[in-house]
Amino acid sequence: MQKNKPGENESNFDPITFSVIKNGLDSIVDEVAYTVIRTARSEIVKDVMDYSAAICDRHGQMVAQAKTIALHLGAIPEAMAKVFEAYDKEEMNPGDAIILNDPYMGGMHLPDIFMFVPFFFEDQVEGFCVVICHHTDVGGRVAGSNASDSTEIFQEGIRIPPLKLFNAGKVNQTLESLIRLNVRVPDRVLGDLRAQYAACKVGVNELNKVFLQYGRLNMRSYFDQLLDYAEKLTRAQIKSWPKGKFTFQDFIDDDGISSDPIPINVEIEVLDDRLVVDYKGTASQVNAAINSTLSYTKSCTYLSVRCALEGDIPNNAGVFRCIDVIAPEGSLLNPDPPAAVAARALTGYRVFDAMLGALAKIVPSIIPAAGEGGNTVVCLSGARSDKSPFIIVDMICGAWGARPNGDGIEGITNASQNLSNTPVEVIELNHPVRIESYEFIPDSCGSGRWRGGLGIRRSYRVLADKAFLQLRSDRKKFLPYGLAGGSPAAGSKNYILSDQGLNEIDSKVTRWVKKDDLIIHEQPGGGGFGPPLSRSRALVERDLWEEKISPDFAKEHYGLSLE
Amino acid sequence: MENSKSKSDSKNLSSRNRVRIGCDVGGTFTDIVLQEEEGDLHVRKFSSTPSDPSRAIVFGIKTLINDLGLEPNQISEIVHGTTIASNVILEKKGALTGLITTDGFRDILEIGRIRTPTMFDLKWNKPLPLVQRRYRRGIKERIASDGSVVEPLSIESLRDTLSFFAREGVASIAVCFINSYKNPIHELAVKKYIEVEFPIFNVTASCDVLPEMKEYERLSTTVVNAYILPAMRSYLAKLQNDLADIGVGCPVQVVASNGGMMGVVAAAERPVYAVASGPAGGIIGAAKIASLIKRPDAIAFDMGGTTAKAAVIESGVPSVTNEYEFRDGISAPSRFVKGGGYVLKVPALDIAEVGAGGGSIASIDDGGLLQIGPESAGSLPGPACYELGNDRPTVTDANLVLGLLNPNSLAGGSLKLNFDAAVQAIQNSIGRPLGLSLLDAAHGIRHLANISMARAIRAVTVERGRDPRDMTLIAFGGGGPVHAVDVAKILGIKRVVIPAMAGVFASAGMLVADLEYDLVRAVNKRVDIITTKELFHLFASMKEEILVVLAADGYTTDNVEFRLKADLRFLGQSSELQVLFAPQELGPDLIPSLTANFLSLYERSFGYVTAEPIEFVNLRVTGVGQKDNRLNLERNKLNQEAREKSLQSLRDVSFNRGSPLQATKILKRFEVGSDLITGPVIIESYDTTVVVPYFSAIHSDNFGNLIMEIDNAEK
Predict the structure, then answer these.
(1) B window 193-232, beta carbon within 8 A of A
(2) What whole-number distance in Å separates Cα of residue A388 and Cα of residue A484?
(3) Sign of torsion, CA A223 A224 A225 A226?
(4) Is the pLDDT assigned to residue B338 strictly greater than 90?
(5) What is the mean pLDDT of residues B62-82?
(6) How far apart are CA B230 and CA B207, in angstroms?
(7) Cα A140 to Cα A146: distance, rounded to the nearest angstrom
(8) Which residues in chain B have Cβ-Cβ distances shorter than 8 Å to A191?
(9) Does A384 touch chain B if contact means CB atoms closer than 8 Å?
(10) Is the CB of residue A239 less than 8 Å from the CB of residue A275?
(11) Cα–Cα distance between B5 and B184 in angstroms, integer?
(12) Helix, strand, or coil here: B395?
């Protein structure tokens, strides 16, 4: 192997070493991510896996990403910029950990705490390990800090600007005690922050070995090459796309406070080998917590484009270079402070759906019909019989829309995330609830030549005397769309079964429930692709045989009568 | 069916001699190793018979004992690694299986953990569930998380479901209820009801296979067991019958996924414990070697035609995992990428596998990046140099071009390699497009394969907080010894060991296995609350259950050893670390000592500890049935083949990128003695080739292993 000492010719590019370093970084960043799961405390991180990990170069450009939540990582550039505003590299030490969560200082919503640990090689910052975790609670007016009906960010929890949680390996007691006092479950939050730090240190140690082997200047050069490589692949594909402007409009049902529909308009302009994505015409910022900061809007945009690219393109800052994002100031997708943003994930999902809708006009052979429209969040909190507090933050996914060449998938994470689910037995052991169903809903798919995935039903029996329910769902009015003549899927539904009988409730709810109430959530399915009447009889019969659709559905959508 | 081989080891063994037979069924060859309990080892390769694997086994055994002049009744035991279970899953040829679960949860199997193993891939497809929705049925019953009965089992709903299954021709049934790990009463009632009222069904209850928390993992494991059970039962019955036909009536053992032996009765009840039977033999053999040569911390490295595998051995014991995903194709070395396969939560040797084998194809992607695999030419059509229809370059082609392999003597000369075809393939696909010379391109392919294999080793070492540089690399399989030295160098490993019989090492390895039976019970209590007394009672009941099972194979309290493991974690975490202990430690000092061991292991793995409470999650007990007839690598030596002629030849070899081809000495394996031979040299034997570059030196130890020392300071 060609080896160069630090200081030797840095333009000495070698394709073999390049592959070695690329694989090496992928493996390091996966190791970082794995350490988080192994050491985290809260279900939302260790079971649901709502966290992400990345490695940045010394300029803060992301060069490698673990197979975690894709949507987090496009937000790193903004966050990194704020970190650099707050701290010069001279003010950073080995063993530092800088955290932030403020959406107006580079964050996304307050529960997502970013951690940046600088990597030093021979006394100079050469990169950063980044871990972002969704924390169970960061204070604010509603347990879980995720309510969709807050009106100002001040109601949503503790805001952390870029600050050192660890200074040269020593914990910053001032900041730690401030966090401890401001969150409802401090052991979980601080335990998860520990997990983030442990994971970043694993990454830093491993980076050091790679730098020792190849030398500082070579590594800098290969980091640049990695970004260029991703950029080159991205530009090559965009170049082959049809030129012009492609638009799509999708809606969020409502913001949970007013019942007005909220439009998201996207226009993608394909120019030679780059894209301009413009959200003009999108709703103004709303008086509820579903506003999406510009960093998150960009993140969703990058990710949508990345899904339309074929092949194994590294998801790094090189891809981002090919995409310009324009979102009007004061809009839902670029709000002015102090707009509330806690439930911004919902808006991100709809940006993803709108982007895919427009991309379907550009690369129709790749893009599926709409999926379930994002995970539902069910947050139940209260006190156990021994007075100790409990908070369940449960996320329910999901279904993919039908693809141009095949059915959608049921029982799957939204494609813009990579979430998992909390085991029923883990929830029941730790919290006073009983899950009474977790199953597919037959007939909830959009029909088509290819059908969408089925939606999922999950229900919760309250076993505590009372509990506070905060539920965020959508796609009740604006259904997951079909493509190429496929039908939309069934929408979401929420019910409470109590001594008052079965009552349907809104898609966004913040209220008390009482012992023995059964909260039932039904997710939407995925949209269909192609005209339903062109679906093969064998496939319809298979769906019937599997009990994924009913005879009535087969008759209504496919004209199939069973004798 | 028999492969050409000298009959020189034919001789009449004393009729008093007892022999044991190890047998590894591979895709191409069925390797048989015969061990005289007090003497030599004999090795034979036979062509496999994939449509009925027992045919090659029975034919091979018959042929070998005839040649050696043995009587069938001299065989005391047959141990075999089988890919029956894994093939049934891969080929979806299991029984029509029905699932009975709690009402409201019939789709848990298909929902799984909802993650995808890839990102940004809208074309991804989920593996097909082994039980279709039609045959997944919820019935009325409910157990609470504390084990109390919320809703009693509805026999009416059960009967309706079973009648439906009977009408539809279901053959095997899996039963898994929510919270059954706390109270199995309903599962046991269903099982009993089926045995009495519907004896046509095979039945697997989750409490018998895996009484652990997390419904999906338990259910998936139970379903896989039910799915493969009929095939495993009929295979084992046929094998025993066919062996009886040639007069062999000895016990037949199956190598389990964890490297222990299972009796046929246990294997027929819990076949899910033997899904990864195939690769286990080589790894436990490597563990024995590690102990024997007093290098107890080692890495077993097995490279074949399509994949390479790595497993860690610590203190002479191979590392075991309690959960893995069985998937079609290659398991990523990453531990947290889920969703690509069938989850099996049973003990298995912790093996990382990557798609880098001799047949892995090298190509250039759209971005101009050289990559190896995951596509493989396998053994058919094989590398370009086989000239059997593949003209794309493989790892083997690169090795050939670099002079590392002998074009005339692979597999004892039965396979001839075409050097020019390899050159053409590399030039056309890699060299010219990337503007690299032939040697640079070949080194690039070889090096990327090495990196990929090093990644598998990192997955089981660095990712688990272990430093590979302190460990010995034990390399086997056809390709292991060809690549071991460079893989070791990438990782900073200083010593490589090539066992005798490296090419058929899996079947030799399984002869060292003891009979094992695993049980697990959920505890879920804080260590400061749990009493030694309740652990002792729990252990006593588990011990009794294990002894009943092992008695079937003739083991009693006298020759069964118990190994205990505590799954511990900080309260609130989801992942456990395991701490081992012995039955005699079940006293007042146990909890403090477990706590101390957990904290130090935790600090080693994650770099910090806290003062938070520790939870005792599960107690695991393994009963190990021991006998002194196991393969002893000190006592049992390979029966020397007829002395081959020394080659006395030179071949042009390039060991490193940038070094030109240089005339290099080629030795036969028997020419390597206890004196250190300094590289560069290539060592050839019937079953493999050992590459010894200039920065390494090699000698043979008393046990017939080759020991290679590497100078890592050398560039």
Answers:
(1) 213-217
(2) 53
(3) positive
(4) no
(5) 92
(6) 19
(7) 9
(8) 570, 572, 610, 612
(9) no
(10) no
(11) 56
(12) helix
With CA atoms as reference, the chain A residue closest to B337 would be A67
Residue with tokens 């891939």: B121
Cα→Cα distances B602→A198, A388, B482, Å = 11, 28, 36
Instruction: Give the one of A49, A236, A418 whose C-beta lies nearest to B119's C-beta.
Output: A418
Residue with tokens 């190849």: A214
- The rounded Cα A228 to chain-centroid distance in angstroms is 26
Q: Please indicate whether, in this complex, the C-beta atoms of A421 and B463 are within 8 angstroms of each other.
A: no
Q: How far apart are the first and last CA of chain B?
A: 47
Q: What is the mean pLDDT of chain B?
A: 88
Give the global pTM: 0.88
CB B706 within 8 A of CB B700: yes
Which DSSP state fits A532? G
Mean pLDDT check: name the lowest of A183-197, A423-437, B287-301, B360-374.
Answer: B360-374
- Contact (CB, 8 A) for B672 and B698: yes
* Residues of chain A neighbouring B116 (CB-CB closer than 8 A): 412-413, 415, 418
Q: Nearest to residue B217, comparing CAs of B326, B364, B123, B369?
A: B326
pLDDT of B6 strictly over 60 = no
Distance of CA A184 to the CA centre of its chain: 24
> Which residue positions in chain A have pLDDT lower than 50?
1-11
Nearest residue to A352 via CA among A256, A252, A425, A424: A252
SS3 at position B150 = strand
Tell the burial category of B197 from Cβ atoms under 10 Å away from its Cβ (0-12, 13-18, 19+).
middle
Candidate from A277-286, A513-522, B21-30, B344-353 with smallest mean pLDDT? B21-30
Measured distance CA(A275)–CA(A360) in Å, rounded = 15
The secondary structure of residue B470, as a DSSP letter, is: G
Q: Each residue of B394-429: b (16+ CB within 10 Å) or e?
A: bbbbbbbbbbbbbbebbebeeeebbeebbbbbbbeb
Rounded to whole angstroms, the Cα distance separating B490 from B399 reads 18
Mean pLDDT score across all residues of chain A: 92
Cβ-in-10-Å burial (0-12, 13-18, 19+) of A9 comes to exposed
Pair B253, B77: CB distance under 8 Å: yes
Percentage with pLDDT > 70 across chain B: 92
Beta bridge partners, A135, equal none
Q: What does the alpha-carbon distance between residue B241 and residue A492 come to, in Å, rounded to a whole number?
A: 58
| Measured distance CA(A486)–CA(A489) in Å, rounded | 9
Given this model, what pLDDT does residue A1 score? Answer: 35
pLDDT for the residue numbered A240: 96
Phi and psi at B80, nearest 5°, equal -140, 145
- Angstrom CA distances, B587 to A29, B594, B613, stand at 43, 11, 21
Band of pLDDT at residue B104, cut at 50, 70 and 90 = very high
Taking contacts as CB-CB distances below 8 angstroms, the residues of chain A near B367 are: 229, 232-233, 313
Helices marked H in B338-418 = 395-401
Identity of the highest mean pLDDT range in A530-539, B415-424, B496-505:
A530-539
pLDDT in tens, B149-205: 999 999 999 999 999 999 999 999 999 999 999 999 999 999 999 999 999 999 999
- Amino acid identity of residue B7, one-letter, is K
Q: What is the mean pLDDT of residues B228-253?
A: 94
Give the number of residues written for chain A. 563
Task: Give the pair of three-digit tokens for residue B562.
Answer: 């118990």
DSSP, collapsed to helix, strand or coil, labels residue B553 as coil
A352 touches chain B (CB under 8 A): no
Cα gap B627→A391, rounded to integer Å: 54
Residue B119: pLDDT band by 50, 70, 90 thresholds?
confident
Whether residues B111 and A35 touch (CB distance < 8 A) is answered with: no
Angle of helix A15-39 relative to helix B590-606, nearest 10 degrees, comes to 150
Nearest to B379 by CA among B391, B390, B368: B390
